[in-house]
Specification:
By secondary structure, the protein is α/β, with parallel strands linked by helices. It has 2 domains: about 80 residues, no CATH class; about 160 residues, 2-Layer Sandwich (Nucleotidyltransferase, domain 5), CATH 3.30.420. Helices cover about 45% and strands about 15% of the residues. The protein contains 12 helices and 7 strands. Helix 10 packs across helix 11. The termini are far apart.
């Protein structure tokens, strides 16, 4: 007997199979394991948090004769051994209207962005924006930005800018961490979380992010994080000092803030 012109012995040797495997009749595993499949799927549907060994023990208690090796084979074929993704529970947030107070340090907005270096390494940016004057306050670049790093960046900005009254932000893990919320509470900063899945409620920073991506992240090919930081710093200075903003009567944010401060400062009377 031959297989494609070769003797069965030579064909099995080339394929790494034994001749007993070649002559063994094919088995319809789905039909043979139908009772096991039905029992496992019924049990997992009712007890979705149970693991394999708990299901195995329950089926044994129910009087099924299958050993653990057969149960494990069917369990894996059904892909029940893979972790089941559950929906992340996010606390209910109240919607805060986007009311703009035309003065600096009234409300800051913070958000994360991500991109990739030329070599495939991913990095993140932390963007901080003053909503009242549309002025970019910081763009921090690194591969990892934890809650401690967010606090450090905000402290650096506060050192030369002053404390904000409130911060508008999403429900990211860095922003809901106890360390970050405790730091904001200690400094008297109100946290205005947007509702989950509603980025339009943080529209000012989202618009800033779109401009930053179009003019920096998508415009250059970066090979190192230092390049991203240097180009971002130059762009941020140009954004604040040179780029006209339509919402600010075509004035750059820095000039608009300077005019607000000049109008709000008390007049000095000459002696």
């Amino acid at each position: 007997m031959t297989v494609n012109g070769l003797p069965v012995q030579r064909a099995c040797h080339a394929a790494g199979l034994s001749r007993a495997t070649y002559y063994r009749p094919r088995v319809d595993w789905a039909r043979r394991d139908a009772p096991v499949i039905a029992a496992l799927t019924t049990l997992v549907a009712a007890k979705s948090r149970w693991g394999f060994w708990k299901c195995c023990a329950r089926l044994r208690l129910d009087g099924h004769p299958w050993n653990h090796k057969r149960l494990w084979r069917v369990y894996c074929q059904l892909r029940l051994n893979l972790p089941r993704r559950t929906k992340k529970r996010v606390p209910v947030r109240l919607r805060h209207p986007l009311t703009v107070i035309p003065q600096p340090n009234a409300v800051w907005a913070v958000d994360f962005m991500s991109d990739t270096l030329y070599g495939g390494r991913r990095f993140r940016t932390l963007n901080v924006l003053d909503e009242g004057v549309r002025e970019g306050l910081a763009i921090e670049v690194d591969t990892s930005l934890s809650a401690e790093r967010v606090i450090r960046v905000l402290e650096q900005v506060i050192a030369w800018r002053g404390h904000p009254q409130a911060i508008r932000l999403d429900n990211g893990p860095e922003f809901v961490a106890d360390r970050f919320t405790s730091w904001c509470a200690a400094h008297g900063i109100e946290l205005r979380y947007i509702q989950p899945g509603k980025p339009d409620q943080n529209a000012f920073i989202e618009r800033f992010n779109r401009t930053y991506r179009a003019e920096v992240l998508d415009a250059y090919v970066f090979e190192a994080l230092t390049q991203v930081s240097e180009i971002s710093a130059e762009w941020l200075q140009s954004y604040n000092d040179e780029r006209p903003h339509e919402a600010l009567a075509d004035l750059p944010p820095a000039l608009y803030r300077a005019q607000l401060e000049a109008r709000s400062s008390p007049l000095k009377l000459s002696p």
